[in-house]
Design brief:
The structure is a single chain. By secondary structure, the chain is an alpha+beta fold. It has a single domain, classed as 2-Layer Sandwich (Alpha-D-Glucose-1,6-Bisphosphate, Chain A, domain 4), CATH 3.30.530. The longest helix is centred in the C-terminal third of the chain and has 26 residues. 24% of the residues are buried. InterPro entries: Polyketide_cyclase/dehydratase, START-like_dom_sf. This is Polyketide cyclase. Pfam families: Polyketide_cyc2.
């Protein structure tokens, strides 16, 4: 079983980061690895059970992910992969944001667990780490553009 954990202190406030990251369907609008992100069946992007579909920019196929939990009070979301063009199974990830009172910034943590063939585990883990790290970097870039 592969396990990944990524954390970062972002320059955005908790409310700014959460407003940006909580939109489950907006992934393709800001993450450089992905495109054509949308919520299937026209459901709201914060509805538990909604499914987002998006393409990987480098021609790596498409993914479908289902929102399992979303809490505005806890600034937390959880989702699972329904489809990926890779031999991954049982993928579940969770993202959580917390305030950093000094400097009015935000701490983000993102983790995932899934099954992947042993010979592909190291590459899969680096791919997921890079994806999560880039999410947080996108929050910083968005915050800088708004200043």
């Amino acid at each position: 079983m592969a396990r990944v954990y990524v954390s970062m202190v972002m320059n955005a406030t908790l409310d700014e980061a959460w407003a940006y990251l909580r939109d489950f369907g907006a992934l393709g609008k800001y993450h450089p690895f992905f495109e054509n992100s949308f919520i299937e069946d026209g459901k709201p992007s914060d509805q538990i059970g909604c499914v987002r579909r998006f393409s990987v920019r480098d021609g790596g196929g498409y993914l479908r992910e289902q929102l399992l939990a979303l809490s505005d009070d806890e600034h937390r979301c959880r989702y699972k992969i329904l489809h990926i063009d890779a031999p991954w199974t049982n993928y579940v990830a969770e993202m959580h944001l917390l305030p950093v009172t000094e400097g009015n910034r935000c701490f983000g943590e993102w983790w995932a667990e899934w099954d992947v063939p042993a010979d592909e585990e190291a590459e899969a883990m680096e791919r997921v780490k890079g994806t999560f790290r880039t999410f947080f970097e996108c929050v910083n870039a968005h915050h800088e553009r708004r200043k």
